Amino acid sequence: MTTTADAGRVRIYPRSVSGKFRRLKYAVLAIAYLVYYGLPWLPWHRATGPDQAVLFDIVGRKYYLFDLVVQPQQIFWLAGFLVLAAMLLFFVTGIAGRVFCGFFCFQTLWTDLFMRIEYWVQGERPARIRLDQQPWGPEKLRKKGLTWLLWFLVAFWTAITFTLYWGEAGTLLREFFTGTAPAAMYITTGILTFTTFTMAGLAREQVCTHMCPYSRFQAAMFDKDTKLVTYDLRRGEGEQGRSKVRKGLKTLEERHAAGVGDCIDCGYCVQVCPTGIDIRNGLQVQCIHCGLCIDACNTIMDNMGWPRGLIRFSSAREQEGGKARLFKLKTVGYGLSILVVTVLLFWSVSHQGEIDTAVRQIRQPLYVLLSDGSIQNSYQIKLSNLTSETHHYSLRIKDLPGAQLDVGHFRTVELKPLKHLTLLVKVRTPQPPPGAARIQDFEFEVVNRDTGAVAAIVPARFYRP
Amino acid sequence: MKQSEHHKQAVQTTGHAWDGDIQEYNNPLPRWWVWTFFGTVVFAVVYWLIYPAWPVGRSYTKGLFNTITFQTRDGQEVTTHWNTRSRFIADMQRGEAAVKQREYLEKIGQSSYQDIVNDPDKMGFVLSMSKVLFADNCAACHGAGAQGKIGLFPNLVDDDWLWGGTFEDIHQTIANGRLGFMPPFRDTFNAEDLRALAAFVLSLSGITDEHDAARVARGREIFTGEEGGCYYCHGKDARGMKSQGSANLTDKIWTVADVPGAPTYEAKLQAVEEVIQNGINRRMPAWKGRLSEEQIKLLTVYIHQLGGGQ
Known about the structure:
CATH superfamily of the domain at 355-463 in chain A: Immunoglobulins
CATH architecture of the largest domain in chain B: Orthogonal Bundle
Number of helices of chain A: 16
Distance between the termini of chain B: 85 Å
Largest sheet of chain B: 2 strands, antiparallel
Number of strands of chain B: 8
CATH topology of the domain at 355-463 in chain A: Immunoglobulin-like
CATH superfamily of the largest domain in chain B: Cytochrome c-like domain
Radius of gyration of chain A: 32 Å
Strand content of chain A: 15-25%
Helix content of chain A: 40-55%
Structural class of chain A: alpha+beta
Largest sheet of chain A: 5 strands, antiparallel
CATH class of the largest domain in chain B: Mainly Alpha
Shape of chain A: elongated
Helix content of chain B: 40-55%
Shape of chain B: elongated
Structural class of chain B: mainly alpha
CATH class of the domain at 355-463 in chain A: Mainly Beta
Oligomer: heterodimer
């Protein structure tokens, strides 16, 4: 544990390690950073819109994602995406524990990078502990200063990069350094520089332990078949507990004969842990399942010439001698949900029409009696062109006998790519016979004048006194 | 740390002891809290320096390096210490949105009505701004949707225009106001004639009762003859006169007598009779001095499109 209730925080100096999971983490790190820092600079050709692959244009209310342009009314895609992300998280957590925390979470990624920087400047764990303990002097000042400077540069570039997603990257960057960028950019950069520096450089594992809610409800998603980073208690402790390699306890045979477990109590697994826990104490709330202790232990086991896997991803059922089941209600259920949401999302994205329409009935007054006794209802119709071509549209009415449509001066409207237009239209029906329905459903048909096809059908209601 | 270890930790006390053994736990504030608190203190001091803050005698500290420059109505440039009122004025003079609005207003001011209604861009501006103008100035009487109120305020959404529905007419109405007047005929007619006149007026809109043919004929006589003299204002054909603001009695629209709301023929007659007896005295104020020329123009276009205009 890194903190105690009364005393201050216990500093963690993770030792570096190499192995399978460390390599995997580096690979994820490289890909994630390449995407995050590189994406705003990726050019993209579009018929209309900016030449930037990913751009979230808040002012223009358009969100460009490669060939997809998302408009505010399609915000439910974001909801679908978030549902998908949540499902995926639950699914993965049910199978392999908090691997999201250990491998993909940005807190982990940035902390990892900041720890690397620390390592490059200040050296390995003992050197860092020594540096922290020695009084302030030129060496400490130089090393600490350089670390903080590099941290700051990374944090600053991280913050700047975030802002570049919200405008044209080149322009924004130039404006930023010439002092002409929008205030929001400076404020966002300031805040994110500060939080990145603080969270990844200073707070680190405390974010996971004390701030992140996910670590608190992880246990609810684990079950006996969840593969968790587990210390093989039976193998490691034997009957007499763990023991260092001493005379008479040097080979596996000697140890097994003496009833001593395979753990040689070297403490490497504790030293490499980024959250400072001892995995041998079992599952703990701080554990982010990064697998570095597995790498550490495997390194030791290889040196000893003993089988690997004293610490490994293993389920409670496996520890009891059973076999972990992958297919069961929970995993299959989450899996199916993921499939359904994915299909729905793809279907929705690929089947959007060329136009988005919304009809709002003018309710004040709901209807107007005209001088010849006919009744008039008014509607506000909003048309949004979702394509990157200019279209011409006209309106007509379906299923309202005798109705006249008055669209004012704009008989045919031209809709530029990705633009929207609000029309005020009036619908009149002749004086109704006594006993006519007071409310009548009908439809507006939006006709594409260029192709002659009906682009959208919008239901509406007609009210009479 | 295990729970048991937690309890073994020595707990800080304030160091006092009462009655020999009663001590008080000391739970110092978390350091981050204390620093945040100091931070707010520093913020406050900086704030005092920059913004008006402390009362000094009859005056107050004005704040440093923080002035606002704006122009008064007579064109003088004024620089004052920071205050929200001046900030608002300056923002209305130089703010991005205010400048854009002014440009649009100028454009509208120079355009003809035909130009405006044929230009979707100008029309978009007219509709959004005049909606607010209408809500601020007109909706109190005419209602939020301009639907008016029968008996009191004319409905502006229908296609009937008491004072004319051309742009020029509407502009005239808004700028100079209108006085809608019909004299009371309480003492002119006896009950039977009054009923006959009401029956005739109803028949003009196609509301008849088979037993009332004689009454309608009598009513027509009063209406078109010198006995009632109604045609002076309403015209021989009872279609009203825009110069008088007199109502067209032949259409289905009623602005004063609540005929559509009356359930029976009898009640409809009564509603019309009441108007004839009591007359009408409605006044719409002039908005010339209160609204700018551009604003009146905006409202004219807005009201014109509400009812379709003429």
